[in-house]
Target: DUF488 domain-containing protein
Amino acid sequence: MVNQVTCRRVYEETSPKDGTRVLVDRVWPRGMRKQDAHMDEWLRDVAPSTELRHWYGHEPDRFPEFRRRYLSELDDPAHRQAAEHLRDLAAHQKLTLLTATKDLDHSQAAVLAQWLNGTH
Model:
């Protein structure tokens, strides 16, 4: 049974309800010291490709196409192992996906959380 997967900004205070905390950004968050991140894992390989990130540029009007392309990338061999690792984590415990993105609703973390929860 898959537990609820949520997403939060890495800069927010931690919560006991977070469960396992996994950073899903390809690059380290600006201004964040590693000891202050309070995360269990940094899973860069599940993040969108550099090309897709640059194309998207966090433009909300591009989000539907970004989402489609990113979900397609998750099936690619370069992302598959990391994506399956997240599925395994989510199957056994509460999982919080962390990102530095300001707009959580239009982020890869939101797409991943929906995908892992089976609501995409």
